[in-house]
């Protein structure tokens, strides 16, 4: 039996990368899908690729930073499918710039996209989950949510914030049978660095070498779905180098800080 048969799974940032791969993976597991991102044409492409019946996929274009529309979008999903079983907070944007050079508005943008948008959508979805006494929040953080690195100060900060918020939510809603899985990918082969913000808030436009050599989005999605099946509270996905850094941060922080400094980009 398919693990997510007839479950309603809402994925933000579903038009490419990890989000698109998750749409395919959840579809294989029998889920009904809600696909959200800003580009409708890309969402329609993903809808066609998942191979589900027309009425089993809702394309819902949205800008996650329009916080006042979060409740409207949640109501539309509930109105269409009758419920929301799982939401994957995958929409996000990275950064490639030094603190000394970065415009303050870049930090606002990073926090809006990577942190506040998830809070707004979570608050919009939560009442329906509480009413049905079930639900699952899957939050795509990053190894950067555990380990701060150069040229990603705002991105690191936003991802760190996700852990604090969702650890609290997990504790508050445990008795309501609502689950939270926070996912920390390392280097995944996507366009995250290409689409990152530079010091002026423009597109960075370059693919990092580590990203290019990273795990495929498809394998990352497979591991995420497996973690969700097992109700993992937090999961680290990627190569040994990235995931080892998390344990170094916990047990040998001085060693980790030295390694990060010495491997900083020029």
TrEMBL record:
Pfam families reported for this sequence: adh_short
Protein keywords: Oxidoreductase
NCBIfam families: PRK06181.1 (NF004825)
Cross-referenced InterPro entries: KR_dom, NAD(P)-bd_dom_sf, Sc_DH/Rdtase_CS, SDR_fam
Domain Ketoreductase, chain residue ranges per copy: 7-191
Family: Belongs to the short-chain dehydrogenases/reductases (SDR) family.
Keyword Oxidoreductase: yes
Entries under Gene3D superfamilies matching the protein: NAD(P)-binding Rossmann-like Domain
Protein's UniProt name: Short-subunit dehydrogenase
A GO MF term: oxidoreductase activity
Classification of source organism: Bacteria, Pseudomonadati, Bacteroidota, Cytophagia, Cytophagales
Keyword Oxidoreductase: yes
Record's GO cellular component terms: membrane
